[in-house]
Design brief:
The protein has helices spanning 18-31, 35-51, 57-68, 80-83, and strands at 2-5, 11-14. By secondary structure, the chain is mostly helical. Strand 1 and strand 2 form a beta hairpin.
Length: 88
Amino acid sequence: MIQLRATMSTSISIRIDQTLYDQARSEAASEHRSISGQIEYWAKVGRAALDNPDLPVSFIAESLASLAEPRTEATDFVPRSAQRPRRP
């Protein structure tokens, strides 16, 4: 059984397959997340993938990661055409 946060101050218990739990524990360690945080992340990626079937899962995961980054560390987007001078 694993505890998942329903809100910032409450949690709920759910039953999951032991194999899934072991995979989440392994992945959580390498991603510096809690086990419940890893399962929540997988759920978010899965939900977004189902909502956007035309997008690659890797793009969805990277997009979610970028949304989680602090805005103070964000850099402005500069199009490639503006990064180097064009040749005649």
